[in-house]
Amino acid sequence: MKALQEKVDGTFGYRQMMLHMNRKFEEDINHKRIYRLMGIANLRSVIRVKKKQSYKRSTPQHVTENVLNREFTSEKPNEKWVTDVTELKYGTKKAYLSAIRDLYDGSIVSYVLGHSNNNNLVFKTLDQATILLNGDHPLIHSDRGFQYTSKGFKRKIDAAKMKQSMSRVGRCIDNGPMESFWGTLKCEKYYRHKYKTFEELSLAIDEYIHFYNHDRYQKRLNGLSPMEYRARAA
Known about the structure:
5-stranded mixed sheet
């Protein structure tokens, strides 16, 4: 357990530790035992820090209803996507991470780290995701940020024959799975280090999202990683 916690830079809580220990030793170790042993060994996960986010105000060009309606489960890959942009920092400068998450397995389908929070950042993220589709037409849900309410984004949605959904004003919980991922990424990776350059931050994001998709086991996925669970569906 100590070796594993060191490998992941101290980010595992008892739930993640239980999943990894059970997989490694092919056992069914109770979460209470893992919790107790972590306490004895003084192994703790990082504490999640909540940050207040600011939003750019603009006049929306296109809005739509909350079609997703907090139905955060999905029966198959590429049925329901959620997306958002979050702010990060390196040195004294800001960077912006845009991502799309599949509600079927929680995997990050595409992501783009950029210097500016603009339409191009979001459009590029959508382009990376839609090029992977093979006849699927997901519902895509976002907040009412200026990128998602733009005519350009609507044109891309229509071209991909996708349906759009938006959170209600001031209801972050309507996009809960995306907010949850940001919290996990920041808690387990971003808040743990200081990044001097954009390249350092970019590398850290690449490493974490690969880890999250391929090696971070989840109880709701029967102890599999998102990509393992997705492969079974295929």
